[in-house]
């Protein structure tokens, strides 16, 4: 997330007397407590009777089988009693459950699944690929095709989990204040302190767990967007990130999403060399993707990582759980970095690659989501017309514009007018458009929000902004009164109504180690549920703008043709007008100059992402979990450094000299491997 919102910012400030009223516990809370106790008491009964879905029986061998079984079977009402022959013991294992059912996790511990929307979980060790689970009755099960533009995405990001951000998990950064400012420096400092990066894996293990997926479904949400860094695949020498490990946890996310009927938008969030110079790209500072001496080489690496991910998620075993691929978070295209035509060439090349991997047409490979690159949605009208399933991504935020002391009430209707029309117009003019990020923040208050060691515009301590007031009232959520919460909820709902298909940023904000509490409360959906400023059901938001008397232009059309994978298969007519390599790399305008830039050469081994290892009872399942690589005919090697050549540092190359030895652009062309099935290569 960042501040280059292409939409109008907040209004100018007026005075607001700070609120110091004590937090009055909302009535709802008492009611909820009673409900909670009721559920606990009813728990066991509910487990047995409330599940109207089939219960599967499977047989475990008496010797040695039972411990396997207890470890991973879900639900556990089974009380298999030994039979007199001592041969085999039938154990009833619950493989699915609805509201109030008990879920048993990998480690044998249990929790209660709550879902008042008719959702149910499914996990059958005999068929770990079962796709019947539903997040809610109104959300299609994974086994059914998502209807783009008709079914509504009510999503949250799992931000700061596998791709770290200081304001999301401040406790990881605080011990190193002010030196850890991004994942690069954090990794270096943890390595220096511990001699390993176990602390980062510990974060993966604990920050998001299975319960979160259950709670997300219980909150009426049906999608998650998961930011993933390229180092989930590999690192190059000199890159201090923890390599490969986050992939293991992404596989857990796939398992849990499948179990709870939630779909995943995999968002490649950090790109070699940095696509935006912001902390969440891995390294603050330079933009070396598509910019400067290593701009093209870094882009080659990025394309290969996109291919490796597309090869994984296009497999039939995974495509229904991960049908949405955000290929790059927030590329910061501009006249001083890489211009629109450059990022469009990159997107077009990614499109060729992904569609070649998965084939064309609904269900073949993911919908491809491209961020509007801070150009505004309308700039994308007419880009790749007729393309097979390309979606636009936009991140509208109020938090980073001009600050205002006005009360939350004054912001409530803004999303309706500011954003509703933009998204709907884009749905009509371009096709599927979703807001990959938004938050409740009406200002930039909160620990590390603008970066470690930086202040806030609101307090007049960042970027020369004039002071508006103290941030305390906006960060000390325990003191918020009911009116504040109601206004915040209303702001949330008008944003949901305006954006229509959305992913809140973010599900969870970790507590600060210093204060033991969340310091950026506007940014946590989990906290919003707990403290009462999230709608119980996001569908309540529909019509909210109208109820406020604010006009919102809701998309009422239908997407068709290539937009939903029902195109002619001809592909976009203008694909050839977006060449790869592009004719401009930041600082090098014109094919002749681009041709001088160093490139990697396609001679490297292909890194296939591993498939999950089944454990417990599932270990004996006979289903194939795939090979990790969808298209066996895709044997184009990875682009790697030319052996013997010394390249400039890919993260610090803006002023480097061009090496004489690296392959000049003109000599390298992506090899088209023999095509099996439909191909869009022109
Ligand atoms: C479901 O509700 C019960 C109390 O009714 C609670 O203990 C449990 O943590 C909830 N489950 C989840 C996943 O939040
Ligand atoms: C998946 O699980 C559900 C619920 O247990 C069951 O009804 C369905 O038949 C299963 N489908 C497959 C393909 O195993
Ligand atoms: C300097 C910098 O990169 N700051 C960004 C760090 O991340 C936060 C949260 O995403 C952004 O708001 C900052 O702009």
UniProtKB/TrEMBL annotation:
Residues 64-76 have a biased composition (Low complexity). It is found in: Cell membrane. It catalyses: Successive hydrolysis of beta-D-glucose units from the non-reducing ends of (1->3)-beta-D-glucans, releasing alpha-glucose. It is a single-pass type II membrane protein. Residues 64-101 are annotated as: Disordered. It is an enzyme of class 3 (hydrolase). GO terms for cellular component: cell surface; extracellular region; plasma membrane. It holds the Pfam family Cellulase. Residues 196-399 form the Glycoside hydrolase family domain. The keyword Nuclease does not apply. One of its GO terms (biological process) is glucan catabolic process. GO terms for molecular function: glucan exo-1,3-beta-glucosidase activity. Its main location: membrane. It comes from the Eukaryota. InterPro entries: GH (IPR017853), Glyco_hydro_5 (IPR001547), Glycosyl_hydrolase_5 (IPR050386). The chain crosses the membrane at residues 34-59. Keywords: Cell membrane, Cell wall biogenesis/degradation, Glycoprotein, Glycosidase, Hydrolase, Membrane, Signal-anchor, Transmembrane, Transmembrane helix. Belongs to the glycosyl hydrolase 5 (cellulase A) family. PANTHER family: GLUCAN 1,3-BETA-GLUCOSIDASE 2, GLUCAN ENDO-1,6-BETA-GLUCOSIDASE B. Glucosidase involved in the degradation of cellulosic biomass. Active on lichenan. This is glucan 1,3-beta-glucosidase. It comes from Serendipita vermifera MAFF 305830.
């Amino acid at each position: 997330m960042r501040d280059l919102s292409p939409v109008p910012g907040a209004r100018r400030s007026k005075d607001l007397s700070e609120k110091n009223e004590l937090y009055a516990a909302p009535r709802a809370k008492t009611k909820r407590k009673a409900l909670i106790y009721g559920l606990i008491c009813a728990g066991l009964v509910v487990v047995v009777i409330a599940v109207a879905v089939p219960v599967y029986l499977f047989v475990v061998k008496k010797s040695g089988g039972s411990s396997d079984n207890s470890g991973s079977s879900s639900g556990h009402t089974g009380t298999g009693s030994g039979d007199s022959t001592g041969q085999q013991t039938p154990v009833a294992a619950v493989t699915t459950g609805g509201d109030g059912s008990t879920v048993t996790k990998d480690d044998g511990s249990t929790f209660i699944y709550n879902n008042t929307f008719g959702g149910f979980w499914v996990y059958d060790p005999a068929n770990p690929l079962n796709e019947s689970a539903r997040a809610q009755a109104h959300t299609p099960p994974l086994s059914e095709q998502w209807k783009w533009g008709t079914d509504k995405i009510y999503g949250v990001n799992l931000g700061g989990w596998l791709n770290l951000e200081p304001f999301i998990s401040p406790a990881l950064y605080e011990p190193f204040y002010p030196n850890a400012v991004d994942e690069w420096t954090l990794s270096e400092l943890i390595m220096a302190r511990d001699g390993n990066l176990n602390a980062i894996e510990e974060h993966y293990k604990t920050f998001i767990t299975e319960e979160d997926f259950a709670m997300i479904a219980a909150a009426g949400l049906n999608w998650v967007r998961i930011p993933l860094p390229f180092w989930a695949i590999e690192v190059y020498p000199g890159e201090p990130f923890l390599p490969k490990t986050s992939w293991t946890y992404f596989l857990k996310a796939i398992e849990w999403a499948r179990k709870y009927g939630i779909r995943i938008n995999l968002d490649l969030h950090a790109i070699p060399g940095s696509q935006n110079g912001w902390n969440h790209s891995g390294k603050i500072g330079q933009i070396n993707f598509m910019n400067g001496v290593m701009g093209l080489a870094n882009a080659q690496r990025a394309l290969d990582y996109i291919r490796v991910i597309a090869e994984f998620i296009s497999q039939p075993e995974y495509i229904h759980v991960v049908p949405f691929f955000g290929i790059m978070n927030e590329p910061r295209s501009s006249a001083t970095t890489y211009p629109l035509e450059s990022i469009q060439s990159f997107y077009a090349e990614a499109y060729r690659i992904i569609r070649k991997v998965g084939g064309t047409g609904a269900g073949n490979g993911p919908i491809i989501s491209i961020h509007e690159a801070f150009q505004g949605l309308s700039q994308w009208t007419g880009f790749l017309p007729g393309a097979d399933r390309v979606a636009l991504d936009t991140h509208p935020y109020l938090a980073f514009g001009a600050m205002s002391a006005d009360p939350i009430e004054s912001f409530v209707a803004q999303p309706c007018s500011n954003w509703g029309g933009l998204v709907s117009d884009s749905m009509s003019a371009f096709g599927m458009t979703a807001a990959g990020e938004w938050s409740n923040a009406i200002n930039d208050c909160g620990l590390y929000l603008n970066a470690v060691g930086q202040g806030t515009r609101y307090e007049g301590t960042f970027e020369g902004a004039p002071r508006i007031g103290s941030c305390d009232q906006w960060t000390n959520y325990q003191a918020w009164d009911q009116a504040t919460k109601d206004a915040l909820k209303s702001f949330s709902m008008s944003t949901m109504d305006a954006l229509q298909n959305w992913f809140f940023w973010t599900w969870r904000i970790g507590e600060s180690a210093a204060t033991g509490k969340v310091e950026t409360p506007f940014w946590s959906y989990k906290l919003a549920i707990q403290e009462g400023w999230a709608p119980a059901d996001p569908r309540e938001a529909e019509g909210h703008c109208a109820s406020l008397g604010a006009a919102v232009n809701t998309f009422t059309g239908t997407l068709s043709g290539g937009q939903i994978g029902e195109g002619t298969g001809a592909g976009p007519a203008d694909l050839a007008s977006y060449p790869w390599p592009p004719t401009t790399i930041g600082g090098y305008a014109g094919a002749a100059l681009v041709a001088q830039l160093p490139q990697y050469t396609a001679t490297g081994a292909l890194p296939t992402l591993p498939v999950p290892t089944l454990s417990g009872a599932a270990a004996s399942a006979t289903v194939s979990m795939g090979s990790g690589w969808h298209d066996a005919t895709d044997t184009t090697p990875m682009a790697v450094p030319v052996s013997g050549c010394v390249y400039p540092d890919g993260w610090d190359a803006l002023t480097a000299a061009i090496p004489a030895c690296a392959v000049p652009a003109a000599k390298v062309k992506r090899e088209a491997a023999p095509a099996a099935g439909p191909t869009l290569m022109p």
